[in-house]
Amino acid sequence: MALRVLAAMSGGVDSAVAAARIAEAGHDVTGVHLALSANPQSYRTGARGCCTIEDSRDARRAADVIGIPFYIWDMAERFHRDVVEDFVSEYAAGRTPNPCLRCNEKIKFEAVLDRALALGFDAVATGHHARIVDGVLHRSPDEGKDQSYVLGVLTREQLGHAIFPLGDSTKAEVRAEAARRGLMVADKPDSHDICFIADGDTRGFLADRLGAAEGPIVDESGEVVGSHEGAYGFTVGQRKGLRIDRPAADGRPRYVLSIEPVSNTVTVGPRSSLEVRAIEAVRPVWNGPVDAPREPLDCIVQLRAHGEVYGCRAQVSGDGERLHLELDAPATGVAAGQAAVLYLGDTVIGSATIASAA
Length: 358
Prior knowledge:
Radius of gyration: 21 Å
Order of helices and strands: EHEHEHHEEEHHEHHEEEEEEEEEE
Strand content: 25-35%
Oligomer: single chain
CATH class of the largest domain: Alpha Beta
């Protein structure tokens, strides 16, 4: 059965090939590019595949080659509120957010999907490297490009209206297909940086919005070993750029262990002190084949995009709004504000936001 599909076209190679595949399959496809900045010149340039003026032009040209209608939707205000302001406020609170994950959740699969359904579309298609099988999210076969982690926050209803046409393809196959189809974005570089930080200087971006706030850097004993101009400039697990006045007694590197925004204190210590085996997370979303586990569930968890996975036991408590994870092996660099995405094999079963770890 032919569907009315809205193809989100970022201007990169993945979304262009995804739109082409859906159109070729006989669906009624309309392309849409999301304008995410009221001042596009303030965002990255250089054809990196997300959010710039060049990207909107590349998306339009791809739609012309495919032969589908194309529109630009202004999402700048919503993006600034739900992604940029969230990014700043999370850092101010001592947490480490993932803006791409938040963009998927709040923009591409909330604001855009809601508008698409209201306009009579059946589904939204994107160029994400992940698979949906019977409404359930799975990893991509291309492990290096798998994006199931940043999609793990989606609800079952949202996944039910999502199409990922690249689910069974590797990135190399996508680029080769783009070239065969005559899409000019075939060799366009992937986007890696945060799109709304033009020069890649996250600390400078936050300083402009939060201001300088000098505070101490202390070791695990509480002794002051340095100072900083804003705790928001650090993240758990960070080793470089600590500006510590004197080396550790054992001569080994120090890492950021914790960030306390109220006292504006950054605590540092040895790598071994970063190890955690227990994680508390909040606001769980269950979007796979199992519901919230009231008894310990053996599964695996991914704690960062393209990060390692760990065997664990997952269990919700109380009203189901808290999730406890016991890891089989210690993890390092676990930061509050990041997502913990749970899997059974390559199947996503849910996610939650990390609140604390020990």
